[in-house]
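Lab channel / #folding
Pinned by the channel admin:
"Please post every new chain as: sequence first, then the structure tokens as a reply. Keep commentary short and put observations after the output so the thread stays searchable."

First post following the new format, from NK:
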Amino acid sequence: MNYFVFQIKTALSNFGRNKVRTVLTSLGILIGVLSVVILIALGLGLRNFIQGEFDSLGSNLLFILPGDVIGDDGQFSGGGGGGVISTSFDERDVSSLRSRINAEFIVPLYTSNARAQAGDITKSADVFASTQEAFTLFNFEPESGDLFNESDVTKRSKVVVLGNAIAKDLFGEPSNAVGQTVRFSEQRFKVLGVLKEEGGGNFGGPNFDRGLFIPYTTSFVTINTDRKFFAIYVRGSFEQDVEELKSQIERALLRRYDEDQFSVVKQTEVLNAIQSIFSIINTVLLAIGSISLVVGGIGIMNIMYANVTERTKEIGIRRAVGATKKDILFQFLTESVLLSVVGGVLAVVLAALIVAVVQQFFPLALDATAVLVALGISSAIGIFFGVFPARRAANLTPIEAIRYE
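Reply from TO:
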């Protein structure tokens, strides 16, 4: 034990000889470990965010999508399962579902892109045409004004509810938009209200903050002239069994469509697909972050080689007074590992501070296993990149080392 303590004290003493070099060397490892830990925290944060979004919709929400989007393994595959992807739904399907199944909400949705104009300002936006129940289904709340109602849907009223971001783009402040007119798809719509900020639109998902929400019947005039729906959302009551509800929906749709022309997807299936995508993204990001660790390791190796050169005489003297090759090897390995561990520990502390600050705005999360792995990797890098200069130092003969100038 005393031997190890002596080696650590010697290493710390040697670090004090050139503080700037020591700091810069540890900085390389610090940046590498920090990159890895933050990337993992970001991945966990994204997963938590998506999980929270799905949980807010309720576990009993089902998506009816065109085509066969369920793979052979039973998991959501995002389409292309060999089915007829051109299938689309209409009011007849909505009416059929409402008459044959018992659900809290059956909400059709049509979506398209549009150029929204208010005065001299024109911005890109997304049109979401649905029923008034969509606001309740997606937990949308107005920040200013009101939402359209069942009467607006029945009368095909030319009214619109704006997402928060598009309202700011067109009118500066959400409250300024209420009562104004927005033109898109060759029609003029009166702004009834503006939704609270949602923060969606990540990874190709719908950006509701840039949405123009109109009654689906109104969209039949010039926007959705085919009167088709992109999807139908069904949410059962909390006491309903999701599997039974899914079976009821499938039986109702099979009266009109073939089995491979539609898919009834549970939230868990969509969530599993998203998490699989995140796993791939995280792997790529970690591979990129690991490059920083390798660069930091090379920096350690270069510094240790320089140390061996500068301390050649010291090595010769230590060998002359009885130090073995093993002692010299262990001394330089200790210094290399300490540089890596110090950089790794500082990186974890800094990552924790960053996560604590960002958590106020986004659900980043530190993973204990990831932290331990990062510290283990930093130590392994210290050993791997330190062994070469350490062996060079240990293999110096005492006489050659003492004579070295």
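NK: The chain is about 55% helix and 15% strand.
TO: also worth noting, Strands lie at 61-66, 105-118, 121-130, 142-145, 159-162, 181-184, 187-195, 211-215, 231-235, 262-266.
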